[in-house]
Design brief:
The complex is a heterodimer. Chain A is α/β, with parallel strands linked by helices. Chain A has one domain: Rossmann fold. Helix content of chain A is about 45%, strand content about 20%. Chain A has six helices and six strands, in the order αβαβαβαβαβαβ. A six-stranded parallel sheet of chain A has the order 2-1-3-4-6-5, sandwiched between helices. Chain A is globular. Chain B is α/β, with parallel strands linked by helices. Chain B has one domain: Rossmann fold (3-Layer(aba) Sandwich). In chain B, about 40% of the residues lie in helices and about 15% in strands. Chain B has a six-stranded parallel sheet, sandwiched between helices. The longest helix of chain B has 16 residues. Chain B is globular and about 60 Å long. The chains are: A alpha/beta, B alpha/beta. At the A-B interface, β2, α3 and α4 of A face α3, α5 and α8 of B.
Chain lengths: ~170, ~200
């Protein structure tokens, strides 16, 4: 991930009012995590699985602060149970920023399931999402996701793919 | 030890704290045992993310005492949260685990604590939550609550309770959405913040 893309993500998060980032690190976003850790305006919370991160983000929402869950798109599968319970059961939203593993161009066999399952799972959860492959669109995508989630009180997701993460 | 008696004791100690809880019968018991805390409690029906949500709330409101009322089945669903608490060391989070050694809400099948080999407090300590204790009597539980509420480190109490739902209690009628709105409005009012604000006119 280029430093300009990392900067765009952090600019978007700050513009959206995010002060807490829960993450489980992955390889495509590997430059993003240390940059988030180093940012004095953001508290990062590494988690043991993405579902735990979703739960923590839900709790941060209830405090009036804003959080985001950053992960590889495989983490969506680990998050489905708390996302369904919190989102569909109580209307507690989580905004997710995912790396798009397994899209066309993927050259790792183990990442293929991530690409095949991501969009159908988002659709099954009725989570609106945007796939962003243009660095210039990152910032607006993040702020749009937060605007929507704080109007709908439901989850939304941004997947960064293409040359942004390769 | 009866969970309802423990809840009554805990409730007597609470005034302006915030509580997140689950699951099954413990929801109705807390609703009755601590009626003054109803608006300050987020009633959930979830397995595995109650303490995570409570931790997130504690992160967002570091000046406010937050209490997670978790269960043996719920905590076993994601033991990783203990490692996260061990690393993050929240100063304002008390976690109480109602350990009745069964999935009571579905009729009482055993959880992994039933065989007597799995020690949730020991797992918490080994995860970096040094203040983690097991209570087997009401007096022990009450004393641990006093210490845990005053602590400035993450604190876990595993309360060994029986599997008998308190008879004759009133069922809570609201669902997760109504509970969330009640809780959020309480946080907004007591913290002077806006969480779910007015819609834009544009």
């Amino acid at each position: 991930m280029k430093s300009t893309a990392v900067d765009a993500v952090i600019r978007g998060l700050k513009k959206a009012g995010v002060t807490v980032v829960c993450y489980l690190p992955d390889s495509l976003f590997k430059e993003l995590y240390p940059a988030l850790d180093a940012d004095p305006d953001i508290r990062t919370i590494p988690v043991t699985n993405e579902g735990e991160g979703a739960a923590i983000c839900g709790g941060v929402f209830l405090s009036g602060k804003r959080a985001v869950l950053v992960m590889e798109n495989s983490g969506l599968r680990a998050s489905v149970e708390p996302l369904a319970r919190m989102g569909l059961g109580a209307g507690i939203p989580v905004v997710m920023l995912m790396s798009y593993r397994g899209e066309l161009g993927e050259n790792n066999w183990w990442a293929i399931p991530h690409g095949i399952t991501m969009e159908p799972m988002l659709d099954a959860l009725r989570v609106p999402y945007r796939v962003v492959r243009d660095e210039d669109a990152i910032e607006e995508a993040i702020t749009d996701a937060f605007s929507w989630s704080y109007a709908a009180y439901y989850h939304s997701a941004i997947a960064l793919g293409g040359s942004i993460v390769r | 030890m009866k969970r309802y008696d423990c809840m009554t004791k805990l409730g007597e100690r609470l005034t302006d704290e915030l509580v997140i809880l689950s699951l099954g019968g413990s929801v109705d018991e807390w609703y009755n045992a601590a009626p003054h805390m109803r608006a300050a409690s987020l009633f959930q029906q979830q397995l595995g993310c109650v303490t995570g949500e409570a931790f997130g709330l504690a992160v967002g409101l570091p000046h406010r005492q937050v209490i997670s009322l978790d269960t043996d089945g719920g905590l076993l669903f994601n033991l990783g949260i203990l490692a996260t608490l061990g690393n993050e060391q929240p100063e304002n989070l008390l976690t109480i685990v109602w350990d009745n050694q069964m999935y009571l809400s579905i009729g009482g099948p055993r959880t992994h604590t039933a065989a007597g080999r799995v020690d949730l407090a020991a797992i918490a300590r080994a995860s970096g939550v040094e203040k983690a204790f097991t209570a087997t009597t009401l007096e022990e539980f009450d004393a641990l609550c006093a210490e845990g509420l005053a602590a400035s480190v993450p604190y876990v109490i595993v309360a060994k309770v029986d599997g008998v739902l308190q008879p004759g209690i009133k069922r809570k009628h609201s669902d997760g959405r109504e509970d969330k709105y009640i809780f959020v409005r309480h946080v907004e009012e007591t913290e002077g913040v806006v969480i779910m604000g007015p819609s834009e006119h544009n």
